[in-house]
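Records of this kind hold a single protein each, on a pair of labelled lines. Below, a sample record shows both lines together.
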Amino acid sequence: MQQINDLGIPPWSQRLQWVLNPVGYMENAFKKYPDLFTAKIVGFGDTILFVQHPQALQQILTNDRQQFSAPGKYNKILLPLVGHKSLFCLDGDEHKRERKLLMPSFHGERMHAYGELIGKITEKAFSQFSANEPFIAQVTMQQISLQVILKVVFGLYEGESYEKIAVLLRSILNRFNSPFNSLFLYFPILQKDLGPWSPWGIFLRTRKQLDDLIYQEINECRQNPDPNRIDILSLLIDAKDENGEGMTDEQLGDELMTLLLAGHETTALAMSWALYWIHRYPQVKEKLVQELDDSADFNDPMSIFKLPYLTAVCNETLRIHSVAMLTFPREVVEPVELLGYDLELGTIVMGCLYLTHQREDLYPDAKKFKPERFLERQYSPYEFIPFGGGARRCIGDALAQYEMKLALATILSNYQLTLAHNRVIKPSRRGVVLSPKGGVKMIFQGKRNRKTMKSPELSLIS
C-alpha cells in the first residue's frame, strides 16, 4: 500500500500508545494529518488507514458492499466477548439477514414501553440516596442502564436469574476496566488459560457461566411462549427471515450477549459524561432545567425525546468525548481514489469518529462544551457520527439516545446534584471504548421541587 501520511513512529510504540493512551495517540497524529493517516495499531491488521474527513467518510460509508466491504473478520478483537455468531463478526448475506431480524426490536410502539421503564428505573436508583451522599456517576448510570437492558432483552428486572446475570455482566466488563487490563483484548498472546485463578482463566469461566444463564433463558422462552411478552428475546424467537427460518440457539445466544455487553456499557458512559458536563457549566444546567420545567411531559416520553436543548446537550456530549472511537473496519474491494490518494485492494480503512468530532472546521472551539452549536447548525451524518454509519451502524442507536434523554430528564427534574470537585476529567480507555477517568464523582444534595405542574408521577419497581 502507498504510504499515506505515515506517522514515522515504530509499530511497537504505536501499538502500545493506542492501547494505553488512545486519545493522546489520535490527537498527536491529528495535529500532523487532520484528514487521514496510516496507523500501525494492534487488533485490526498490520496497517490501518484512519480517516476523519467527512467527504471521505461519506464515500466509504455509502459504498458498503461496493468499493468497500465490512468483513466481520476484522472485528475478531471482540470475539472473546460476543462470539462468532454476533452481528459484529458476521459477513455479507449472513450479516444482512441477522441485522434485518434484529431491527424491529428497536423501533415502533415498543419504544414507548421502554420509555416508561427507563423513568421508573432511574427514579428508583436515585431515590435510594440520602442528602449529601457522595456517589460515582458512572457506577450509578451503569446500574440504571444494566437494569434497562436486562428488562428490554430478557424481560427481567428482579429475581435470581436477574441477579446472577447482572453480577456476571459487571464482572466481565470490569475485567477490562483500565488501559492496562485492556491489553488482554488487543494482544492474543495474553489470552492463555493458566488455571481458574489466572486473569484469562477467570474471564473464560465467567463467560461460560453467563453463556449458560443466557441459554437457560432462551430454552425457557422457547418452552413457554407468551404472546404478551415484548422483550427482545421473545421477539427474536418468533422472528423469521424471508425463507421462514428463525435463529438457532447459538445465533440467539451470541446476539443476546452482544446486546447485553454493547447495549448498556456505552449508554452508561455517555450518560456519565453528560452529568459531568451539565454540572460543570451552570449556564447549561440552568437552561436545560428550565426547558424541562416548561416543556417536559413525563406522561409522553417521546415528547421529552424531541426537546431541542436536551437533544443539543446529548449530541454535544456524544461529540466532545465520543464513547466509541472508530467505525468498524472496511476493506477496499476494488481500486478506489480517496481524497486524491489511490487505495489498493485489501487496504483496511476505519473512520475515526473521535477525530472527526474534533475538527475545528466543523466544530469551532472543539474542546469547549457548547450545546448551542447543534441548535445553530444541522450536521450531516458524516460530520456528526457517534453511532457509526453504513451497513454496520449501531443497531441500538435509537434506544441509546432515548434512554440517555429520558434518564437525564428524570434526574435533572427531580434531584439536585453537584460535582464533588471542579477538576477536569479526561477520557481513559475502558476495553474498546472511552470512559471518564475516575467515573465522575458527584454529591447527591436532595430532591428537587419542580416549578410546574408536569412533575412525573413515577411508581417504583418493587
About this structure: The longest helix spans residues 249-280. The longest strand covers residues 441-447. The CA atoms of residues 173 and 261 lie 8 Å apart. Residues 453-462 have pLDDT under 50 and may be disordered.
